[in-house]
Amino acid sequence: MALLTSHAREKVTTEVLEGFFSNSGPPAYEIDRGKLLKRGRYEFPVVFVSAASQNVRAHRRFSSIVIVDTGHGDWAVDKLP
């Protein structure tokens, strides 16, 4: 929670955040090159890849994460996937 902006903290609870990172899935993710939205604000495309089973192909879920400059060389997450 310390790495989230106040805006991001309003959108997510501690339990949801802990569940997201402690969950066994997705087994893989990709973060692509970010783009400048405005000075000090960048958006990075993220792809979550679920495990493939014998009869099911891997599933990809597309989202994005927004990082902002909070000053003094610190950065924080403003939007979670």
Description:
The protein is α+β, with helices and mostly antiparallel strands and 81 residues long. It contains two helices and five strands. The longest helix is centred in the first third of the chain and has 9 residues, at 14-22. 1% of the residues are buried.
How would you summarize what this structure contains?
By secondary structure, the chain is an alpha+beta fold. It has 2 helices and 5 strands. Strand 2 (35-38) and strand 3 form a beta hairpin.
Q: What number is the mean pLDDT?
A: 85
Count of domain modules = 1
The tally of helices reads 2
Order of helices and strands: HHEEEEE
- Report, as a whole number of angstroms, the end-to-end distance: 15 Å
Low-confidence segments, given as residue ranges, are: none
Task: Give the helix/strand class.
Answer: alpha+beta
Overall outline: flat
Protein traits:
19% helix; alpha+beta; 81 residues; flat; Nuclear Transport Factor 2, Chain: A; 5-stranded antiparallel β-sheet
Write the layout of secondary structure elements.
Blueprint: H1 6-11, H2 14-22, E1 28-31, E2 35-38, E3 41-49, E4 60-71, E5 74-79
Antiparallel strand pairs: 1-3, 2-3, 3-4, 4-5
